[in-house]
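Here is my example:
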Amino acid sequence: MMQLALGIDIGGTSTKLALVDKTGNITARSSFSTADRTDEHDFFHHLFASIDELMGSEMKLVGIAAGAPSANEQQGTI
């Protein structure tokens, strides 16, 4: 079973995801528009769907790293 880490970059325009193996090679990547999401529920629906699409049955997720610069906690936006 392939052990992979998931990297998530949440930006104001787009959210990017990548699966990385233990040697640092990107094995899969995906992205979707952050700006087009209507609320946090819509955002997380797309995030989880994107993760499901990236993950194969022979893959084991061993770590997750996420970054979200410029978050506005007062307005609830990124």
